[in-house]
């Protein structure tokens, strides 16, 4: 009688092929929650990085969402496992309480934000994630249920930029069972998050339906088939992205002060799908978050066709004489305190550094009065539209703007060095 073949662990030669696409000699963060998938990624990367030849510098990141009391202990366990294979590790902690609903989406966005801030402040290239073949299939099924377009149904890519953060997913062709088999072969424990088996979460319900004895699997919708379909859709999506990039080159200009302009004629000549994606990309850059998708984006384009200004993704999109202006809204802009010599990543858009100062300043958006004042002392602010300039950060002591924003190092006196960060 023939039994089911036991999944094979990933050996060194296969790991070399899997990680061959990662940038050599770069600094990379690695997201490690403590679950089996990410711990397997850490173990495989550690062994691969120890081999001869050019290899990236690796730093493990664990996000403590503050959702479970065990999370801090689990993060300490990951730190110990990382140290055991010679890797550095940092815990990133949520600084805001979770919402009452939409916990998984909130947690995902929190991870991206905290890891993005770490990547920028440490000069890293991006983050390596442990998404695997079943994740690919589950994501396709979830997006089908939501009526996603081609961009959503296309495969997660081995390398992609989400918002301003570059992501690497080297395990997309690997089955979940093989990652667990790898850990078992190494005698490496992992953390079982009870949330990963809680059917109140959409992804968990789909995972159960896609299992060998699940409802979708019985209909032939197995993870291998869905992952293959996602890959084919991804090829079509990549073809459209080629024309999106061309349209961005011809029609859009992203200013270093954090706003974008769009040439109306060149934009109008593009197909609707390309125009939607151009807007999404610009809103992601200017707003500092993930690019918007779906009905909200379609409504935005329709509103613009009616010559109406609109908001989406933390941005305001308005008509100008020659096309469109995309700038950051003045709401939900964080305040922070910055000391001399420190750097900070602000609003998912700007890398800040306080220069020529002897005391800390409070960082907040310039606003109307602050931008008018900054223009009188910083010449390079003169050509920036007022509605865009008001969302630029400045350094304040009380109500006084003491460290105006500058985009070059030639300005003398106390100043706030500002570098717009797009991630690609």
TrEMBL record:
Single Gene Ontology BP annotation: tRNA processing
Reactions that this protein is recorded to catalyse: cytidine(34) in tRNA(Ile2) + L-lysine + ATP = lysidine(34) in tRNA(Ile2) + AMP + diphosphate + H(+)
Keyword Ribonucleoprotein belongs to the record: no
Keywords per UniProt: ATP-binding, Ligase, Nucleotide-binding, tRNA processing
Enzymatic class: ligase
Secretion signal span: none
Enzyme Commission number: 6.3.4.19
GO molecular function: ATP binding; tRNA(Ile)-lysidine synthase activity
The keyword Nucleotidyltransferase is annotated on this UniProt entry: no
A matching Pfam family: ATP_bind_3
Start and end residues of each tRNA(Ile)-lysidine/2-thiocytidine synthase N-terminal domain: 28-208
Family annotation (HAMAP family): tRNA_Ile_lys_synt (MF_01161)
Protein name as it appears in the record: tRNA(Ile)-lysidine synthetase
